[in-house]
Amino acid sequence: MSDLYARHRSVLPDWLALYYEDPLEITHGEGRHVWDADGNKYLDFFGGILTTMTAHALPEVTKAMSEQAGRILHSSTLYLNRPMVELAERIAQLSGIPDARVFFTTSGTEANDTALLLATTYRRSNTLLAMRNSYHGRSFSAVGITGNRGWSPTSLSPLQTLYVHGGVRTRGPYASLGDEEFIAACVEDLKDLLGHTRPPAALIAEPIQGVGGFTSPPDGLYAAFREVLAERGILWIADEVQTGWGRTGDHFWGWQAHAQNGPPDLLTFAKGIGNGSSIGGVVARAEIMNCLDANSISTFGGTQITMAAGLANLSYLLEHDLQGNARRVGGLLLERLRAVAAQVPHVREVRGRGLMLGVELVKPGTDEADPDAASAVLEATRADGLLIGKGGGHNTSALRIAPPLSLTVTEAEEGAAILERALRSLS
Ligand code: PLP
């Protein structure tokens, strides 16, 4: 056990997740690579934890942050703040939500908490709908709407949450259905739930489940849900903490795969926008955002230093069409992994889109999740110079691949070759 690991164990919570039997200490990064304290170099296929959206140590972001740091780090949102207004203008316009207002927080959890506060206040109901297998953060209320059973049983949340089918397709009652039948079955389930409850405030859902192992519903699922919800005045909150900013390649936001009947009522974001600095937030129509009476700030939400990072990062992403890159390079990676998967009996499914790809591992010849196989792949890829992720809670048998969106074709091929070796070594 390294000295730092021993010190970590003696002062930090036991439940703080750590990857690898011999945990890594990352010291620096550049582009799509990071280095550990022993000087080993790794290709980063997890982008921090989808936080390094463009690249590690991107010079444009570093320059914007150091210039901002030389002026002021933070003056609170009690005063006018130019970088915050400018980033809000860009996000409001990109969100697709009409008459949009943006409230900045410091994390995805706080963004979702705020969305819940807004939705429950606006609709005067503390009943919520959430997806089975979902993850929305680690605060008291976010855990209370998280469907991933790794977290929920410990929560005594005051919210009443009802869980909707549609998050998981590889197991459960609807596993064998085609897309249209799957959607129809999930819509029936939703209607059934609504027949047994007080009118809920909102449905919160990740367009592709992140911690849940990058499980992707069929396109159009949320559009079909939306019809049922809109008839009853129930809001739709899209949790875009992992799926935003072009990561899914085909779309800038995950909700756009379900866009037939327009944008969500509220959208939450975090992770990638700050390229590693702490930005989260909520976008909502003015009518919903302004339903709170209280004068409210998030002390560090919207602070100048992170807003400067967000502006530089977003400009780089758009100017270099990293969404298009995610579509092209992610498409190649998906094809390559599917070809390998066809020959490795441990692989149940390779799924996702853009640079958000999941590989679900099972015990060969069964449908039984195999978290040990996922851990073995993590160890083997690390030994070969590649970092990847895995799902959380009850989804640790799914590998998660989410590199920075500037990944090159050569790097994609290099990473795919390492993954291929690790997957083949399972048999
Ligand atoms: N929502 C989703 C979809 C997430 O994946 C996460 C974190 O993984 C969160 C919310 C919580 O974000 P944070 O860890 O920044 O609080």
TrEMBL record:
CDD domains noted in UniProt: OAT_like
- Similarity comment text for this entry: Belongs to the class-III pyridoxal-phosphate-dependent aminotransferase family.
Query: Which Pfam families is this protein grouped with?
Result: Aminotran_3 (PF00202)
Q: Which UniProt keywords apply?
A: Aminotransferase, Pyridoxal phosphate, Transferase
Enzyme class, UniProt record, top EC level: transferase
Quaternary structure and interacting proteins, as annotated: Homotetramer.
Cofactor(s) this protein cannot do without: pyridoxal 5'-phosphate
Task: Write down what this protein is called.
Answer: alanine--glyoxylate transaminase
**Molecular function GO labels:** transaminase activity
Species name for this entry?
A: Streptomyces spinosisporus
**EC annotation?**
2.6.1.44
- Spans through the membrane: none
